[in-house]
Amino acid sequence: MPDIVLLQALRTYQWIKNLFIFAPLLFSQNLTNGPLVLVSLRAFAAFCMISSAQYIFNDIRDLEEDRAHPVKSRRPLASGRMKTGSAIALLIGMGTGGILIAATINLPFLLITAGYFILQVLYTLWLKHVVILDVFIIAAGFLIRVIAGGLAIGVEISSWLLICTILLSLFLALGKRRYELVLLDQNASQHRPILKEYNPYLLDQMISVVTASTFVAYCLYTISDETVEKFGTKNLIFTVPFVLYGIFRYLYLIHQKAEGGTPEALVLKDKPLLIDIFLWVVTAALILQMR
Question: pTM of the full predicted structure?
C-alpha cells in the first residue's frame, strides 16, 4: 500500500486537533519542564492514534454514503484504493497502540482516552443524527482533549479554559455544518441526513451567538482576578487582538471563500490564520514565562 494512501486513511492532517492537549501545559507555565513536555508528547501520540482509529471506523461505517459524496468519495476506502480488510487491520493496530501508550501515562488519562473513543463511536453510529447534539459532540471532542492534557501531566485546569474551549469548539463545529450545507446544497440531506434539520440562516444565528460568547469569555478570562492571581500578570489582555483577528479571519473564510469543512486543514493552508495562531502562542508563552 503506498505511503500516501496510508497517511490519507489515517487522516494525519487532522492530528492538529490534538494540539489542544498541550493547552494545560502552556497555561500551567510548564513549557520548559522537560519531563512534563515528554508526557504531553506521549499523550499527543496516544490521541493521534486513537483519533485515526476512530476516523477509519467512521470510513468503514459510512462507506456507501462516502462513495456518493463529492469530496469524501476521494478517501482511500471510498475510492477503492484501500481494501476493507486492510482498513480493519489498521483500525485495530492504531486503536491498540493508542490505548497501550495511554496506559503508560496514568489511569485517569487511560480512562478518558477510552471514553473519547467510545463517544466518537457512538457519534458515528447514532449521535450524529440528533440535531444540535451532533455539534455539541463534535465540540466535546476538543474539550476532552484539553481535559486529557491536564490529566496526563497532573495539573488543575481553569474553568475559564474549559469555557473558552467549548465555545471555540462549537464555533468550529457550526462552521463545519454550514460548509456542508452550502457545499451539498439540495443533496445535503441525502449525504448527511441531519442536515435537513438545519438551514444557513439558523446556523448563522448560532454562529453569531457562539462567536460573541467566545470573544467575551476570552476577554474576561484574561482580566479575571483568578487569572491575574494565578499567573501574576495582567498582560494576557495583549493576546486578545490575535483571538479577535483569528475569529474574523475564520468567519471571512466561511462566508466569502465557502470553506470551513475541515477546520484543521484550513488552519494549515491559510497562511494569515496560521501566522495569527503562531503569534498568539508565542505572545502567550512569552507573557506567561517572563512575567
Answer: 0.86
